Description:
The chain has one domain. 51% of the residues lie in helices and 14% in strands. 2% of the residues are buried. The protein has helices spanning 9-17, 30-42; strands at 2-4, 23-25.
Amino acid sequence: MICSTKSEEFDRYWGMKQGADAYITKPFHPTELLKTVKRLLRG
């Protein structure tokens, strides 16, 4: 999972291409982070 300040579409694409399972842009709401982590743990 990548948490980044970069929110451009290319940055999201690059992060996922590098192997990230999720990409969240800062600032993010804590519930968004928790939802993403739970989704990743469920697989």
